[in-house]
């Protein structure tokens, strides 16, 4: 029973902080999932737990909470009783008395350890959410490098590329997507879906357009200076979903947001053309009516 208890206690120190940190980070952004061996996972957990444990230990000793919970002699009695059966039989009452103090000392340390982990994870969440603004405000290159080292390795690469993390304030993200069927699509990145391992599942484009490649190639043979923009056609609907399994090439463009977007869609051009024709016909009918009245 004592062996099970100490195993759980060891797991609370080594694996608990990392588990809580990953759980909290998962609420902010899709995390980057690392495929590691068992030894690499243990080593990583130990490294992640050392720093907050050291801070928690100094905190507990500085406030006197650790000394009030127990003393070094309590630790010696407990570990001696676990190691030696003869010592346990000879000092059974002292062992259980020290075991109570031992539990109080660990509770004192674990509360501070997990509080530090939660605060660190929440701070990292805020840094991830406001990464572009923080990076723009940092004046020195090493500060930006430190921020990137702390934030980017913990986030899925696809979230970094397809979100506003790397975008300057006021910019948006456009994409040219080439599919396996050799169809080229274009649109503004509206959303994406990521798998549990951080892999890309789908891309959602706003204001989607499709490029008429065959017609463009034929026109280009006749006229090398043909306008490429004339062979883009808007796709009906506001959002267009592309599955990542169909994508073979993805070109991202960071575009500065203008106060007014002067690029009109195909539907807008048709509506404007019809409106101009109607206004022109109304003006012609009005002139004819005025001449007849004269």
From TrEMBL:
Taxonomic superkingdom: Bacteria
Record keyword Membrane present: yes
UniProt keyword terms in alphabetical order: Membrane, Transmembrane, Transmembrane helix
Transmembrane region(s): 6-30, 42-62, 109-128
Name of the protein this chain belongs to = Uncharacterized protein
